[in-house]
Amino acid sequence: MITVALPKGSLLKESIQLLKTAGLDFTGFLAQGTRQLQMMDSSGQARGLLVRAKDVPVYVEYGQAQLGIVGYDVLREREPKVAQIADLGFGGCRLSVAVSSDSGYQSAVDLPPHCRVASTFVTSARQYFQSLDLAVEIVPLSGSVELGPITGMSEAIVDLVSTGRTLTENNLTELEVLYKSTARLIAHPLSYRLNQDELSLLIDRVRNAAIAHLSA
After folding, report:
1. Does this model's pTM top 0.70?
2. Are residue 54 and residue 74 in the same domain, yes or no?
3. What is the CATH number of the domain that holds 49?
4. Scanning 17, 67, 75, 216, which has the fewest C-beta atoms within 10 Å of its C-beta?
5. pLDDT-derived band of residue 213, with 50, 70 and 90 as boundaries?
6. Cα separation of 4 and 13, whole Å?
7. Domain range holding 147?
8. How many domains does the chain have?
9. Could you report the per-residue pLDDT of 37-47, keeping only the tens digit for each?
10. Measuring CA to CA, which residue among 3, 2, 30 is closest to residue 16?
11. pLDDT tens, 151-182?
12. So what's the pLDDT on residue 216?
């Protein structure tokens, strides 16, 4: 039986809608007040696991799930040993460098050497500034990184940006975009190669559903 890891949070609703179009119904996860973390789809074809977005590739890499849906930002940051199957086209956002709007900085290379940069995306931030040959101190935070420049703890932040509203409301300005992110379909490499439980047929259905969604 195929197990699919689904991400809690902003990608969940569209992930479930896409899978429903592909023939797997996990809408029970969206029921108000539910605390279920696993369920069979309504047709009995597959099992769904509801996990934190950052844990989706972990469940897939270790074989507890054959398929998963997760943002590219998570894959880029964690570099798990999974097969990236398809760009599903929803959940668009970008990872950006931002500073206080009144800082006077025009680009990331204007930041002073050895300044602090706050981020949840420590690996991506470090790799980016290394590519600029700019030595900075990456300050790891688990949330509300916008407070870094506001409180003076950091000169800049590296964080996900969707609409930009949060930055604007906190007097922050984007300087650079490191990369753009959308939801991706991932698979356990061995299960994918061996086509266990006719995995390739389900993957084709999900791909077709994603194409139909993008062209709608």
Report:
1. yes
2. yes
3. 3.40.190.10
4. 216
5. confident
6. 14
7. 93-179
8. 2
9. 999 988 888 99
10. 30
11. 999 999 999 999 999 999 999 999 999 999 99
12. 64
